[in-house]
Queue: 4 jobs
Job 1
Amino acid sequence: MNLPNKLTILRIVLVPFFVLFLLCPGIPHRFLLAALLFGAASYTDHLDGKLARKNGQITNFGKFMDPLADKIMVLSALICFVALGIAPAWMVILIAAREFMVTSIRLVAADTGVVIAANNWGKAKTVSQIVAILVACVLEYIEELAEMQCIFLSSTAKEVFFWVQWSVLLIAVILSVISGMIYLVQNRAVIDQVR
């Protein structure tokens, strides 16, 4: 197994630890730890693709597992956010629906020998999701510090944090929906083959 594929596997292995930190309130500095793990996992996503292209190590395993690892990572975080009351369920449902739809289109295309590469909208969607998750974790960590009485946080600051979290998550949802619609339009021929 080459290094890019190992990095992809590492990204999946980090997910349960990230989820553990998010969902276990007894762990001190849990949102900071979650943000650090998620940031490291996100960086492996950038690094594995870069290394695979640079060293000519693109494999079928990597083509399949890399986007799957991304989806596992992002959806795990967002589902935890629903459980924690950070994100509403409808946001996560829209993002998950887009991911399942695009994956289905890619699978049908692959069955006919067509490879659908990620476009700029898909890349923007991924970046917006990663940024939204990291921003939410950092803001939750600041609130965690306030609860531990390490810092003072005014009610106004908490209100601002709420709207910042809501905004970055909403941007991720909007870009997910737009990129999903673009995938549908661009790959209509693939969809028509299924009928």
Note: The domain at 3-194 is CATH 1.20.120.1760 (Four Helix Bundle (Hemerythrin (Met), subunit A)).
Job 2
Amino acid sequence: MRPLRFCHLTTFYPPHNFGGDGIGIQRLVRGLAKLGHHSTVVHDVDAYRLLAKNKEPKDLGEPPGVEVVRLQSDWGKLSCLLTQQLGRPVVHGGRIAELLERGEFDVVNFHNISLVGGPGILKYGDAVKLYMAHEHWLVCPSHVLWRHNREVCTGRECTKCVLSYGRPPQAWRYTSYLERELHHVDAFIAMSRFSRDKHKEFGFPRDMEVLSYFLPAPERSGPTASVSKPLHAKPYFLFVGRLEKIKGLDDVLPIFRNYKDADLLICGDGEYAETLKRAGAGIDNVRFLGRVSNEDLANYYEHALALIVPSICFETFGIILIEAFRSKIPVIARRIGPFPEIMELARGGELFGSPDELVAALRRFQNDPHHRTRCAEAGHSAFLEHWTEQAVIPRYLDIVRRAAERKGRTEIARALASS
């Protein structure tokens, strides 16, 4: 097999990263490196610094086969604003064009390009080109189909919506500019069937492949795996994630004011944390743990009765669900977005759509250990089959192969066909 050269362009990448998409890209490029392929990741430090308020993270480095190019300039915030408004890489365009020309890449994979280049970046390079839709940016100026910062979007009110977020409207979204630039891309990838269908519903004109996120397989599993001592003595349910309104904890906290049989542990932090803490004041069995180490988080997963995923927005996937399945604990997820398709495939828990359904699920997982064990084992088996590196990366490379065949890049298709 001839190793391929990939270039991944994205706004955020660890450690200059927010949310799960950057981590997902990092897992992908590291997985490709294990197979002998080389990846160059190009991302925008200016965008990170704009949102991180000058908090500079520690860089832990990358393994052989992964190179990171960090775009930064003296323009700072203005560089991001120009890209956001004009839909092209005004400040960093020359550098990106030089990298793509000099790198002799076989594959260029665009990810979250909102601030690294906008639609104008899609014309750069002559490799096989993929676009991976980690968000709904292609059809939504706010990226998340969360209208007016208060409700799921069921129909376009884009100008009013963007203003409610305090962002300037993008004039290029009201022209055919985006649609014209899409023709430079050979394959589009959605992270779930739900996200693919939402793109189509909101007018996205191209077909999309479906490829889920993945996680590393657990280092230890099975009956011989050791069990750590729990960090929390009482029975508990778990929430893990950024504390934002769209994550839905507002609906969960009141439940635990009356549900006294178990605690609710909340791992994570965010801009909505103080509001949630005020809402949870006086609820003795709710604990806000803030950010916790990976080691402690693994312990909280291991001993939880179930993970609660109450998001009220249209997410593109639900990586937190497969994190629970990997840890062999069941999930109680809201019946929204991609969660039903993940739960249908995994059989690893229950869905809820009302407070009564949530309480009933809490009681079943606490009082029926056989039900809990069945769901936990089913979710874990589904994780091993569908959501590991070994399961997903071959599907990714098959998408690349088919795109190369359509583009007439037979040497790339042959290299992947022989792998």
Note: The mean pLDDT is 94.
Job 3
Amino acid sequence: MTDLQKRSLLKVAALTAVASAALVGCGKKEEPAQAPAAPAASAASAAAPAKPAPLKIGFAYVGPVGDGGWTFAHDNGRKAIEKEFGDKVVTSFVENVPESADAERVIRDIAGQGNKLIFGTTFGYMEPMLKVSPDFKDVKFEHATGYKQGDNIRTYDSRTYEGAYMAGVIAGKMTKSNTLGVVASIPIPEVIRNINSFTLGAQSSNPKVKTKVVWVNGWFDPPKETEAATSLINGGADVLFQNTDSPAVLKTAEAKGKRAFGWDSDMTAYGPKAHLASAVINWGPYYIKATKEALDGKWAGGGHSWWGVKEGAIDIVSIAEDVPAETKAKLDEVKKGLADGSFVIWKGPLKDNAGKEILAKDAAADDKFLSGVNFYVKGVEGKVPGAK
């Protein structure tokens, strides 16, 4: 075989090898065919339901949240709403809103910021809220301690006179001078009723007691409250009560070696040696109820709610260790009676401090009567400011 023939054979072999390799390299294992993709879900069916926007709730406070009393108690109620409903609500507040024309501006601003449930937490906001509410038909207005309602405004209150009576039961037992002192805020039925109830409670423990009153004409004014408390102590009072919002009265009693009560919130820390007990308000139950009604679309304007011991809105707490056991037992009985309706604070025979009969024997005062109290009961000295 010539070299030329050998080269030709080698060339053919090489070409054959290359072709075979090419065929092997191009071969593929057949994969099973994929199922056709399912049609894309429509946007409407795939999207999760839209989460409702939270209910915006606004509060107007007459004092600072740190007053230790009235406004502090309301702010605890606001926090109770947040705890109960979580991200279903958003709450906010404006503090130190005066009971004047400025209240209308603030309440109008709270509504304008998108709050759909608004709580005005003092008596002096009644007229401003009545003026603002017709301009915001989709807003639900709640006014504390008032008596005028409208299509989208209703009122609520707590039976603070029940706490005042229970404090009186203790005061009558603990006084040594038989003279009690009350630092009072503004002469409206709510406050006058509390002074009288405190006195009635004290008389149930000690018929010899008398009550002196000094008015400061304001809810939160620590310097005036201090001055009034000092005046009462100088006048012989050794147990002080208050219907004002700061702990100034308790602090004054502590400084002067006398006894006193906390009011609206537990004030023990402000005067631990002087503190006999605190008559407190729990606004949480009502605020939770009102918020749930708003969230459920069941809130209705008009009407009035007045809650007390029965509804868990009023209590007497942190009773001092030196209060006698029999007095504590009596308080338990009073509290139980208020809760089940078997005990009535305002029941005749009852006379005012001028000797006029105001409730006949066995007659019980109804809410209309209690809402219009403008006199002192027997045992309270002086006259109600502005009363005829």
Note: The chain has two domains: 55-158+284-307, 160-273+314-371.
Job 4
Amino acid sequence: MSLSSVLNTAQSSLTNTSRQTNVVSRNITNAYNTDYTRRQAVLASTAPGARVVSITRAADAALMRQNSDALSVWHAQNTLMTGFERLSLSVNGVDNATSPAMRMGELQTALQTYSASPGDRSLAVNVVNSAGDIVRALNGGTQAIQQLRTDADVEIKQSVDKLNSLLADLEKINTDVMTATTLGRDASESLDLRDGIVKQISELVPVTTQLRGDGDMVIFTQDGVTLFETVARKAAFEASPMLLSGQSGNQVYIDGVPLAGGQGGDTDAGGSIAGLLQLRDSVATQMQTQLDEMAHALVEEMRQATGDDGLFTWATGTTPANQGASTLVVNTAYKANPLAIRDGTTGTLNPDANAGFTAEIERLMDAFDANRTFSADGGIEGAKTLSTYASASISWLENLRQLSSTAAEKKNATLARTSEALSNKSGVNIDDELAKLLELEQSYAASAKLMQVANDMLSTLMATVR
């Protein structure tokens, strides 16, 4: 081997070691960056020695897709589960202690106690107060549901704005990837940024991706709607100032196509936006229907035997279209004269003012056990008594909450497994990188030794020539 070949080989080795060390150092620096994909310097044989021909990423498209899917379904499920927990606490209270069903049980107990001493005015007052507790439970439950729907509407707006922002960022990064690919430059940084944006988008809506030859990426929603192709498509949504009972929320449109919400406690939705839509338009509206049905049953089943308004009625000025849990009130005639529970508001039910008269009280007690048909829109089917329906409302919510919680645990476990698999494949293992650094250190030492030998040979040669 000639002296010049030795020098060239040593120089090539030092250059390669420098580039490889830079790659390993960058890997170690980003060891805890979940959006970073491990790099590797690829060597190719040359004459003399070898050289770094490219920097590759340890990316795995299949694992990326699985992780993106798992991320999407978990965010939808977690959004729904959080909504169920909020409804359970705000409408029914801790351990259902302030639920309409519990308040109805207290009213039944108050009526039963009053029936034993129908001449006791304080017991009649207790009945009216218990009726007020039911009204407050139904009024408050409606307010909580309306607030949840309004909050969900606001979150949908924020999520849509974030989606549009991410798509705009993606357009810039995707252009950088295409430019670098076309010019043969290292596009690793841009590819990492693009993958990170896709992950953030999948948290909002489920996506599938398709790569083209020039590094271009096309993104579709789960329903096949184009979300991004060279340029970002527009996601549109108009928030409502306040969603009242019976008022529908606006739809989310992606490239002009409406985005559907999920269904079921173990939701089939993907992405937090679909979870919010399900919470706003399905879960909350069904529960509102249940409260409205209870309010209607209380007014209708507890009318006086004369047909006049009974213990419960609608707020003054309420139109038929607005009759529901939000407008339910205790009849003011009963507040002014609690003994109207026994005698009726006009006294005609007990014209002799018999202190032991119990017929009307017993009829009110029986109202809770009378079968009636409730609207199927509330998600509770079949003819039921008022008491049974109120209890079924609790069971309906708790069953969905439990199902949602269990599903969230399973989907979180799936997300953890896919994230771990992706990390093992494309993430950075510090131990491995440190081992590579030791190898590169030895390579550097060998190259330096070769340079020293070449220097000694050159010195000897020069001395001989002199």
Note: The first strand starts at residue 39 and ends at 45.
